[in-house]
Amino acid sequence: MGTLRELSESLFAGQTSIREHHPFFPAGEMEEVADGVAFFNWFANFSAIKTTEGLVMVDTGMPVKGADVVAMLRRYSPARVNTAIYTHGHVDHIAGMSAIAAEAGHNRAARPRVVGHRAIAERFDRYQRTAGYNTMINQRQFANRTVEWPAEYVYPDTYFDHQFNVAAGSHRLECHHARGETDDHCWVYLAQAKVLFTGDFIIWAAPNAGNPAKAQRYAREWAEALRTMAKCGAEVLIPGHGLPIFGAVRIRQVLNETAEFLQNIYDQTLKLLNQGAPLDLALHEVKPPDTSNKPYLQAIYDEPEYIVRNIYRLEGGWYDGAPSHLKPATMIDQGREITEIAGGASQLVARAMNRFNAGDLAMASHLIDWAYAAAPDDPAVNHARMQIYGTRAEQSQALITRGIFKAAAHESALKIGLA
Protein backbone atom coordinates (compact mmCIF):
# COMPACT_ATOMS: atom_id res chain seq x y z
CA MET A 1 0.00 0.00 0.00
CA GLY A 2 1.12 3.56 -0.68
CA THR A 3 1.77 5.91 2.22
CA LEU A 4 -1.40 7.95 1.75
CA ARG A 5 -3.53 4.82 1.61
CA GLU A 6 -1.87 3.52 4.77
CA LEU A 7 -2.48 6.81 6.56
CA SER A 8 -6.11 6.88 5.42
CA GLU A 9 -6.60 3.35 6.79
CA SER A 10 -4.90 4.37 10.04
CA LEU A 11 -7.38 7.23 10.49
CA PHE A 12 -10.35 4.92 10.01
CA ALA A 13 -8.89 2.39 12.44
CA GLY A 14 -8.45 5.05 15.12
CA GLN A 15 -4.69 4.52 15.18
CA THR A 16 -4.09 8.11 14.07
CA SER A 17 -6.02 11.21 15.13
CA ILE A 18 -7.53 13.48 12.50
CA ARG A 19 -6.14 16.40 14.52
CA GLU A 20 -2.63 15.04 13.89
CA HIS A 21 -3.34 15.11 10.15
CA HIS A 22 -5.67 18.07 9.89
CA PRO A 23 -7.28 18.21 6.42
CA PHE A 24 -6.58 21.94 6.10
CA PHE A 25 -2.82 21.73 6.56
CA PRO A 26 -1.11 20.61 3.34
CA ALA A 27 1.29 17.68 3.23
CA GLY A 28 2.49 18.27 -0.32
CA GLU A 29 2.47 14.54 -1.11
CA MET A 30 1.50 12.94 -4.39
CA GLU A 31 0.33 9.38 -5.01
CA GLU A 32 -1.24 7.50 -7.90
CA VAL A 33 -4.53 6.21 -6.49
CA ALA A 34 -5.71 4.40 -9.63
CA ASP A 35 -4.15 3.60 -12.97
CA GLY A 36 -3.23 6.95 -14.49
CA VAL A 37 -4.91 8.99 -11.74
CA ALA A 38 -2.65 11.06 -9.47
CA PHE A 39 -3.79 12.67 -6.21
CA PHE A 40 -2.01 15.72 -4.82
CA ASN A 41 -2.55 16.29 -1.09
CA TRP A 42 -2.52 20.05 -0.83
CA PHE A 43 -4.35 22.76 1.13
CA ALA A 44 -7.13 22.05 -1.33
CA ASN A 45 -6.46 18.77 -3.11
CA PHE A 46 -6.14 18.51 -6.87
CA SER A 47 -5.82 15.56 -9.23
CA ALA A 48 -4.43 14.76 -12.65
CA ILE A 49 -5.59 12.04 -15.04
CA LYS A 50 -3.34 10.83 -17.87
CA THR A 51 -5.12 10.59 -21.22
CA THR A 52 -3.92 10.21 -24.81
CA GLU A 53 -4.76 13.91 -25.32
CA GLY A 54 -2.86 15.17 -22.30
CA LEU A 55 -3.67 15.63 -18.62
CA VAL A 56 -7.13 16.36 -17.28
CA MET A 57 -7.06 18.08 -13.91
CA VAL A 58 -9.84 18.10 -11.36
CA ASP A 59 -9.27 21.35 -9.46
CA THR A 60 -5.95 23.17 -9.63
CA GLY A 61 -5.01 23.92 -6.03
CA MET A 62 -3.41 27.22 -5.10
CA PRO A 63 0.06 28.54 -4.29
CA VAL A 64 0.93 27.98 -0.62
CA LYS A 65 4.09 29.41 0.99
CA GLY A 66 5.65 29.97 -2.40
CA ALA A 67 5.12 26.39 -3.58
CA ASP A 68 4.32 26.11 -7.28
CA VAL A 69 1.38 23.92 -8.30
CA VAL A 70 2.97 23.43 -11.72
CA ALA A 71 6.17 22.06 -10.16
CA MET A 72 4.09 19.60 -8.14
CA LEU A 73 2.23 18.53 -11.26
CA ARG A 74 5.46 18.04 -13.20
CA ARG A 75 6.68 15.57 -10.61
CA TYR A 76 3.99 13.32 -12.06
CA SER A 77 3.96 14.01 -15.78
CA PRO A 78 5.48 16.37 -18.38
CA ALA A 79 2.36 16.12 -20.55
CA ARG A 80 0.39 19.20 -21.54
CA VAL A 81 -2.69 19.98 -19.48
CA ASN A 82 -5.63 19.46 -21.83
CA THR A 83 -8.52 20.40 -19.53
CA ALA A 84 -9.06 21.63 -15.98
CA ILE A 85 -12.39 21.04 -14.23
CA TYR A 86 -13.34 23.31 -11.34
CA THR A 87 -15.42 21.45 -8.74
CA HIS A 88 -16.41 24.93 -7.51
CA GLY A 89 -15.08 28.46 -7.49
CA HIS A 90 -13.41 28.70 -4.08
CA VAL A 91 -9.97 30.25 -4.43
CA ASP A 92 -8.09 27.33 -2.87
CA HIS A 93 -9.44 25.08 -5.64
CA ILE A 94 -8.92 27.32 -8.66
CA ALA A 95 -6.03 29.74 -8.04
CA GLY A 96 -3.38 27.36 -9.38
CA MET A 97 -4.91 27.73 -12.83
CA SER A 98 -3.08 31.03 -13.39
CA ALA A 99 0.31 29.31 -13.14
CA ILE A 100 -0.86 26.44 -15.36
CA ALA A 101 -2.07 28.88 -18.01
CA ALA A 102 1.22 30.83 -17.75
CA GLU A 103 3.19 27.62 -18.30
CA ALA A 104 1.18 26.89 -21.45
CA GLY A 105 1.93 30.39 -22.73
CA HIS A 106 5.63 30.00 -21.97
CA ASN A 107 5.66 26.71 -23.90
CA ARG A 108 3.72 28.26 -26.80
CA ALA A 109 1.02 25.66 -26.23
CA ALA A 110 -2.73 26.13 -26.24
CA ARG A 111 -4.10 27.18 -22.90
CA PRO A 112 -5.99 24.32 -21.21
CA ARG A 113 -9.74 24.37 -21.52
CA VAL A 114 -11.42 25.20 -18.22
CA VAL A 115 -14.80 23.67 -17.36
CA GLY A 116 -17.06 24.81 -14.56
CA HIS A 117 -20.62 25.45 -13.50
CA ARG A 118 -22.29 28.57 -14.86
CA ALA A 119 -22.50 30.24 -11.43
CA ILE A 120 -18.70 30.33 -11.10
CA ALA A 121 -18.57 33.46 -13.27
CA GLU A 122 -20.78 35.37 -10.84
CA ARG A 123 -18.67 34.11 -7.92
CA PHE A 124 -15.48 35.43 -9.53
CA ASP A 125 -17.20 38.76 -10.24
CA ARG A 126 -18.26 38.96 -6.58
CA TYR A 127 -14.76 38.07 -5.41
CA GLN A 128 -13.39 41.01 -7.36
CA ARG A 129 -15.98 43.34 -5.82
CA THR A 130 -15.26 42.11 -2.29
CA ALA A 131 -11.50 41.54 -2.40
CA GLY A 132 -10.88 43.65 0.71
CA TYR A 133 -13.48 41.81 2.74
CA ASN A 134 -12.24 38.41 1.64
CA THR A 135 -8.63 39.32 2.45
CA MET A 136 -9.68 40.37 5.95
CA ILE A 137 -11.83 37.36 6.79
CA ASN A 138 -9.32 34.84 5.48
CA GLN A 139 -6.47 36.49 7.38
CA ARG A 140 -8.60 36.13 10.50
CA GLN A 141 -9.91 32.63 9.79
CA PHE A 142 -6.48 31.14 9.14
CA ALA A 143 -4.54 33.37 11.56
CA ASN A 144 -2.34 34.44 8.66
CA ARG A 145 -1.96 38.18 8.13
CA THR A 146 0.00 37.70 4.90
CA VAL A 147 -3.04 36.41 2.99
CA GLU A 148 -3.87 38.57 -0.02
CA TRP A 149 -7.03 37.89 -1.98
CA PRO A 150 -6.36 37.40 -5.70
CA ALA A 151 -7.45 40.11 -8.09
CA GLU A 152 -7.49 38.03 -11.28
CA TYR A 153 -9.19 34.72 -12.10
CA VAL A 154 -9.13 32.27 -14.98
CA TYR A 155 -12.82 31.99 -15.86
CA PRO A 156 -14.16 28.77 -17.38
CA ASP A 157 -14.30 28.51 -21.16
CA THR A 158 -17.06 25.90 -20.99
CA TYR A 159 -19.99 26.38 -18.65
CA PHE A 160 -22.70 23.87 -17.79
CA ASP A 161 -25.91 23.95 -15.79
CA HIS A 162 -26.77 20.43 -14.64
CA GLN A 163 -24.53 17.75 -16.15
CA PHE A 164 -21.60 17.76 -18.54
CA ASN A 165 -19.19 15.12 -19.85
CA VAL A 166 -15.53 15.98 -20.36
CA ALA A 167 -13.96 13.74 -23.02
CA ALA A 168 -10.21 13.39 -23.55
CA GLY A 169 -9.01 10.43 -25.57
CA SER A 170 -10.80 7.36 -24.26
CA HIS A 171 -11.51 9.01 -20.91
CA ARG A 172 -14.86 10.49 -19.99
CA LEU A 173 -15.40 12.42 -16.78
CA GLU A 174 -18.98 13.07 -15.71
CA CYS A 175 -19.57 16.46 -14.03
CA HIS A 176 -22.76 16.71 -11.96
CA HIS A 177 -23.93 20.02 -10.49
CA ALA A 178 -25.44 20.11 -7.00
CA ARG A 179 -25.69 22.89 -4.44
CA GLY A 180 -23.79 22.19 -1.23
CA GLU A 181 -20.98 24.27 0.22
CA THR A 182 -21.52 26.56 -2.76
CA ASP A 183 -24.16 27.21 -5.40
CA ASP A 184 -21.64 26.48 -8.18
CA HIS A 185 -20.47 23.08 -6.95
CA CYS A 186 -20.12 19.90 -8.93
CA TRP A 187 -18.84 16.42 -8.28
CA VAL A 188 -16.96 14.45 -10.90
CA TYR A 189 -16.98 10.72 -11.63
CA LEU A 190 -14.46 8.81 -13.76
CA ALA A 191 -16.42 5.60 -14.26
CA GLN A 192 -13.73 3.58 -16.04
CA ALA A 193 -11.41 3.92 -13.03
CA LYS A 194 -14.25 4.08 -10.45
CA VAL A 195 -12.80 7.29 -9.00
CA LEU A 196 -15.12 9.89 -7.46
CA PHE A 197 -13.93 13.48 -7.06
CA THR A 198 -16.20 15.15 -4.50
CA GLY A 199 -14.68 18.59 -4.17
CA ASP A 200 -15.77 20.09 -0.84
CA PHE A 201 -18.81 17.86 -0.49
CA ILE A 202 -16.33 15.75 1.56
CA ILE A 203 -13.51 17.39 3.54
CA TRP A 204 -12.62 14.89 6.31
CA ALA A 205 -14.49 17.08 8.81
CA ALA A 206 -18.04 18.00 9.72
CA PRO A 207 -19.36 19.70 6.56
CA ASN A 208 -18.55 23.37 6.14
CA ALA A 209 -22.24 24.16 5.86
CA GLY A 210 -22.42 27.11 8.22
CA ASN A 211 -19.27 29.22 7.90
CA PRO A 212 -20.21 32.51 9.64
CA ALA A 213 -18.30 34.84 7.32
CA LYS A 214 -19.00 33.21 3.96
CA ALA A 215 -21.84 33.04 1.46
CA GLN A 216 -24.92 30.84 1.79
CA ARG A 217 -24.58 27.05 2.16
CA TYR A 218 -27.23 24.43 1.26
CA ALA A 219 -27.41 21.61 3.82
CA ARG A 220 -30.47 19.76 2.47
CA GLU A 221 -29.30 19.70 -1.14
CA TRP A 222 -25.82 18.77 0.04
CA ALA A 223 -27.25 15.67 1.72
CA GLU A 224 -29.15 14.76 -1.46
CA ALA A 225 -25.99 15.04 -3.55
CA LEU A 226 -24.06 12.79 -1.19
CA ARG A 227 -26.76 10.11 -1.40
CA THR A 228 -26.61 10.28 -5.20
CA MET A 229 -22.80 9.90 -5.14
CA ALA A 230 -23.14 6.86 -2.88
CA LYS A 231 -24.91 5.02 -5.70
CA CYS A 232 -22.04 5.40 -8.19
CA GLY A 233 -20.06 2.36 -7.08
CA ALA A 234 -16.82 4.34 -6.66
CA GLU A 235 -13.82 2.48 -5.27
CA VAL A 236 -11.65 5.57 -4.70
CA LEU A 237 -12.94 8.88 -3.32
CA ILE A 238 -10.87 12.04 -3.73
CA PRO A 239 -12.09 14.68 -1.23
CA GLY A 240 -11.64 18.43 -1.45
CA HIS A 241 -9.45 18.33 1.66
CA GLY A 242 -7.83 15.46 3.50
CA LEU A 243 -6.86 12.00 2.33
CA PRO A 244 -8.34 9.68 -0.31
CA ILE A 245 -10.83 7.05 0.84
CA PHE A 246 -10.53 3.54 -0.55
CA GLY A 247 -13.06 0.72 -0.97
CA ALA A 248 -16.66 0.81 -2.19
CA VAL A 249 -18.19 -0.13 1.18
CA ARG A 250 -16.26 2.49 3.10
CA ILE A 251 -16.98 5.18 0.53
CA ARG A 252 -20.72 4.51 0.72
CA GLN A 253 -20.46 4.66 4.50
CA VAL A 254 -18.75 8.05 4.49
CA LEU A 255 -21.11 9.54 1.91
CA ASN A 256 -24.31 8.24 3.53
CA GLU A 257 -23.28 9.07 7.10
CA THR A 258 -22.27 12.59 6.08
CA ALA A 259 -25.66 12.93 4.39
CA GLU A 260 -27.41 11.67 7.54
CA PHE A 261 -25.44 14.17 9.66
CA LEU A 262 -26.61 17.09 7.52
CA GLN A 263 -30.17 15.80 7.16
CA ASN A 264 -30.49 15.32 10.91
CA ILE A 265 -29.45 18.89 11.66
CA TYR A 266 -31.64 20.21 8.85
CA ASP A 267 -34.73 18.31 10.00
CA GLN A 268 -34.36 19.40 13.63
CA THR A 269 -33.82 23.01 12.59
CA LEU A 270 -36.72 23.08 10.14
CA LYS A 271 -39.07 21.66 12.77
CA LEU A 272 -38.20 24.49 15.17
CA LEU A 273 -38.43 27.08 12.40
CA ASN A 274 -41.93 25.85 11.53
CA GLN A 275 -42.91 26.08 15.19
CA GLY A 276 -41.90 29.76 15.20
CA ALA A 277 -38.91 29.22 17.46
CA PRO A 278 -36.43 32.12 17.53
CA LEU A 279 -32.94 31.43 16.30
CA ASP A 280 -31.52 31.66 19.83
CA LEU A 281 -33.67 28.71 20.94
CA ALA A 282 -32.75 26.65 17.89
CA LEU A 283 -29.04 27.22 18.48
CA HIS A 284 -29.36 25.62 21.91
CA GLU A 285 -32.00 23.00 21.12
CA VAL A 286 -30.62 21.37 17.96
CA LYS A 287 -28.26 18.54 18.86
CA PRO A 288 -26.08 17.02 16.13
CA PRO A 289 -25.74 13.23 15.87
CA ASP A 290 -22.96 11.58 17.85
CA THR A 291 -19.91 11.39 15.57
CA SER A 292 -17.29 10.62 18.20
CA ASN A 293 -16.25 7.42 16.41
CA LYS A 294 -16.24 8.95 12.91
CA PRO A 295 -12.91 10.64 12.07
CA TYR A 296 -14.43 12.16 8.91
CA LEU A 297 -17.18 14.01 10.81
CA GLN A 298 -15.30 15.82 13.57
CA ALA A 299 -16.06 19.52 14.08
CA ILE A 300 -12.50 20.63 13.39
CA TYR A 301 -13.31 23.28 10.79
CA ASP A 302 -16.97 24.34 10.90
CA GLU A 303 -19.43 23.72 13.75
CA PRO A 304 -22.97 22.27 13.81
CA GLU A 305 -24.26 25.39 15.55
CA TYR A 306 -23.24 27.46 12.54
CA ILE A 307 -25.12 25.10 10.22
CA VAL A 308 -28.29 25.85 12.20
CA ARG A 309 -27.74 29.56 11.62
CA ASN A 310 -27.25 28.99 7.90
CA ILE A 311 -30.46 26.95 7.61
CA TYR A 312 -32.42 29.68 9.40
CA ARG A 313 -30.97 32.27 7.02
CA LEU A 314 -31.76 30.17 3.94
CA GLU A 315 -35.26 29.04 4.88
CA GLY A 316 -36.41 31.93 7.05
CA GLY A 317 -34.38 35.08 6.39
CA TRP A 318 -32.04 37.03 8.66
CA TYR A 319 -34.51 38.07 11.37
CA ASP A 320 -33.61 36.01 14.45
CA GLY A 321 -36.90 36.44 16.38
CA ALA A 322 -35.68 39.08 18.86
CA PRO A 323 -37.64 42.29 18.08
CA SER A 324 -34.89 44.57 19.40
CA HIS A 325 -32.51 43.11 16.82
CA LEU A 326 -34.71 44.28 13.95
CA LYS A 327 -33.64 47.93 14.33
CA PRO A 328 -30.98 47.80 17.06
CA ALA A 329 -29.02 50.50 18.80
CA THR A 330 -25.34 50.47 17.90
CA MET A 331 -23.11 48.11 19.84
CA ILE A 332 -21.26 51.16 21.16
CA ASP A 333 -24.48 52.68 22.53
CA GLN A 334 -25.53 49.34 24.02
CA GLY A 335 -22.13 49.01 25.66
CA ARG A 336 -22.28 52.50 27.14
CA GLU A 337 -25.78 51.94 28.53
CA ILE A 338 -24.89 48.61 30.13
CA THR A 339 -21.61 49.99 31.44
CA GLU A 340 -23.50 52.84 33.08
CA ILE A 341 -25.96 50.42 34.67
CA ALA A 342 -23.05 48.31 35.93
CA GLY A 343 -21.39 51.32 37.52
CA GLY A 344 -18.51 51.71 35.08
CA ALA A 345 -16.28 49.66 32.83
CA SER A 346 -14.29 48.34 35.80
CA GLN A 347 -17.43 46.76 37.27
CA LEU A 348 -18.28 45.14 33.94
CA VAL A 349 -14.73 43.81 33.62
CA ALA A 350 -14.91 42.44 37.15
CA ARG A 351 -18.16 40.66 36.37
CA ALA A 352 -16.75 39.31 33.11
CA MET A 353 -13.73 37.88 34.92
CA ASN A 354 -16.00 36.44 37.61
CA ARG A 355 -17.91 34.51 34.93
CA PHE A 356 -14.63 33.61 33.21
CA ASN A 357 -13.20 32.14 36.42
CA ALA A 358 -16.43 30.22 36.94
CA GLY A 359 -15.98 28.62 33.51
CA ASP A 360 -18.88 30.45 31.83
CA LEU A 361 -16.89 31.69 28.87
CA ALA A 362 -19.94 32.50 26.74
CA MET A 363 -21.36 34.92 29.31
CA ALA A 364 -17.90 36.34 30.01
CA SER A 365 -17.65 37.10 26.28
CA HIS A 366 -20.97 38.99 26.23
CA LEU A 367 -19.90 41.09 29.20
CA ILE A 368 -16.47 41.93 27.85
CA ASP A 369 -17.93 42.77 24.42
CA TRP A 370 -20.13 45.40 26.03
CA ALA A 371 -17.21 46.77 28.03
CA TYR A 372 -15.04 46.88 24.90
CA ALA A 373 -17.76 48.62 22.90
CA ALA A 374 -17.99 51.32 25.57
CA ALA A 375 -14.27 51.65 26.34
CA PRO A 376 -12.22 50.15 23.49
CA ASP A 377 -8.93 51.68 24.63
CA ASP A 378 -9.21 50.90 28.36
CA PRO A 379 -6.16 48.76 29.32
CA ALA A 380 -8.12 46.73 31.88
CA VAL A 381 -10.86 46.00 29.36
CA ASN A 382 -8.33 44.87 26.76
CA HIS A 383 -6.37 42.75 29.21
CA ALA A 384 -9.54 40.90 30.21
CA ARG A 385 -10.68 40.62 26.59
CA MET A 386 -7.33 39.19 25.55
CA GLN A 387 -7.53 36.61 28.33
CA ILE A 388 -11.14 35.62 27.70
CA TYR A 389 -10.86 35.24 23.93
CA GLY A 390 -7.38 33.75 24.12
CA THR A 391 -8.77 31.01 26.33
CA ARG A 392 -11.77 30.48 24.07
CA ALA A 393 -9.42 30.14 21.10
CA GLU A 394 -7.32 27.55 22.93
CA GLN A 395 -10.41 25.55 23.84
CA SER A 396 -11.93 25.63 20.35
CA GLN A 397 -11.37 22.64 18.08
CA ALA A 398 -12.98 24.18 14.99
CA LEU A 399 -10.50 26.14 12.89
CA ILE A 400 -13.03 28.85 12.00
CA THR A 401 -14.05 29.43 15.62
CA ARG A 402 -10.47 29.42 16.84
CA GLY A 403 -9.46 31.95 14.19
CA ILE A 404 -12.19 34.44 15.12
CA PHE A 405 -11.52 34.21 18.86
CA LYS A 406 -7.77 34.40 18.32
CA ALA A 407 -8.17 37.54 16.21
CA ALA A 408 -10.15 39.25 19.00
CA ALA A 409 -7.48 38.34 21.55
CA HIS A 410 -4.74 39.59 19.25
CA GLU A 411 -6.57 42.88 18.65
CA SER A 412 -6.65 43.59 22.38
CA ALA A 413 -3.07 42.39 22.87
CA LEU A 414 -1.96 44.97 20.30
CA LYS A 415 -3.73 47.74 22.19
CA ILE A 416 -1.88 47.01 25.43
CA GLY A 417 1.47 46.36 23.81
CA LEU A 418 1.56 42.59 24.28
CA ALA A 419 1.64 41.66 20.60
Describe the protein.
The N and C termini lie far apart (47 Å). This protein has 15 helices and 13 strands. The chain has helices at residues 3-12, 69-74, 91-94, 97-106, 120-129, 131-141, 219-229, 248-274, 279-285, 304-316, 331-342, 345-357, 361-374, 379-395, 399-415, and strands spanning 29-34, 37-41, 46-51, 54-58, 81-85, 113-117, 158-160, 163-168, 171-177, 186-190, 195-199, 236-239, 245-246. The chain has 2 domains: 3-262, Metallo-beta-lactamase domain (Metallo-beta-lactamase, Chain A); 329-415, Serine Threonine Protein Phosphatase 5, Tetratricopeptide repeat, CATH 1.25.40.880. The protein is 43% helix and 15% strand. The protein is of the alpha/beta class and 419 residues long.
Please tally the β strands and state the result.
13
User: How many DSSP helices?
Assistant: 15
Biggest β-sheet: count, sense, barrel?
7 strands, mixed
What is the CATH homology-level superfamily of the largest domain?
Metallo-beta-lactamase domain
What distance lies between the first and last C-alpha atoms, to the nearest angstrom?
Answer: 47 Å
Query: Which CATH first-tier class of the largest domain would you pick?
Result: Alpha Beta
The arrangement of helices and strands along the chain is HEEEEHEHHEHHEEEEEHEEHHHHHHHH
- CATH topology name of the largest domain, in short, is Metallo-beta-lactamase, Chain A
Strand order of the largest sheet: 1-2-3-4-5-6-7
Count of the domains: 2
Named at the architecture level, the CATH assignment of the largest domain is: 4-Layer Sandwich
Write down the Rg.
Answer: 23 Å
